[in-house]
Amino acid sequence: MANTLLTLLRKPLTNSLLSKTNNISLTSLYIQDVKYLFSKASLGLDGFSQQSEKIKLQLNNIADKFREKMSEYVTIDSKNMIFTEDLKNMVHLTENDQDIQLTVEMLKKYNKQNKSLRFGNYVFGPVVMRMFYVHNKPDLALECFKSEELTGIFDQHISFQLLLDLLYENQRYQEMLDVFQIISEKQLEGQKYPKNVIVLILAACYKLNNQESLDWALKLWTQLSEVGHIPMRRASTFCAGLAFNQGKPDIALEILSSVRNQNYTTVRNLKVVALAEIGRLDDVIPILKFVLSDDTPQNENVHTFNRDVLEKVKQAVSKSNNPEITLEFNRVEQMLIKQGHVSQTSLDEQLCSEIQRPPINRDFRAQQNFQPRGFNNEGFQQRPRRINYQRPGLSELV
């Protein structure tokens, strides 16, 4: 796939293809700015808020005195240590900018202390990043992530994900790409390209929606292909959507070919609109028909096409001046509408819809029915546990 994509990138478009792609409306997919990419629950933010309320209730009577004591402990001449429990409590007690700054100073001192004195397995990176996220502090989160005084604190995949998602929420897309350069050099747990991080980075490229971001995304995509990394479906659709928006439907189709399940709603819609854009209407009609043929009483999930996608197909059909194709498309379109297979949600909205939970990881550990080691909402490492995977319904795959 990498070689084919490289060939496409190096091969100049034919005049006929140029005439078609130059007329693409770059706003057809790029319409809405959806605020969140990963849901709060999937990032552990709900759990963090619950824990904060619990600790605030427990320390209600002594919270102010505790803050005063910690403020004394972080002074330059203080010889008092910052213990794990102190920092845990302060992270969850934060209510204003002063509290957050105190927490950062405590974290810096904590990180300087003799690490041999730490006997627990508490990891502060994800918890502190959740604090930044809850209080919407992208600048401070970025500053701390880059701080030499906090080296090693945020070296976890979930911390990367939280930081990038916070930047995404604040539409700091270019800074997301800059952060990725730092992340890719760390190679934690032998991974240079964490899957959720790749999703966020390609989402940033999609949102930037310019030629530079497309070049950046395709370079990354080629690197992923060369090392055998298989991006998650959402990463693939972001990259393909960006290629389409930038007038490269042929590249979009090549990227979509890497998705294992071609019947995902977003994949199917992108494939249809890209094929229509390059005049492959003979290939579009069977895809539209398949949704109708798959509409059985046993199938509880309704397969849909986005309204804006069908409109673009209709425009391509009209330009084709082919009576046979026009007749067949009109017939199929009416059946799709009648049977409820047309979604009023735009393709852009669907591409950027909130990810409710991490997609199934089908790597070796998943095949062994073990959940990868991670960090819970309170910062403790979770031990692997056996889980039973179920095939998600189509409504979960949108």
From TrEMBL:
PANTHER family with a match to the protein in the record: PENTATRICOPEPTIDE REPEAT-CONTAINING PROTEIN 2, MITOCHONDRIAL
Protein name as catalogued: Pentatricopeptide repeat-containing protein 2
Biological source species: Hypothenemus hampei
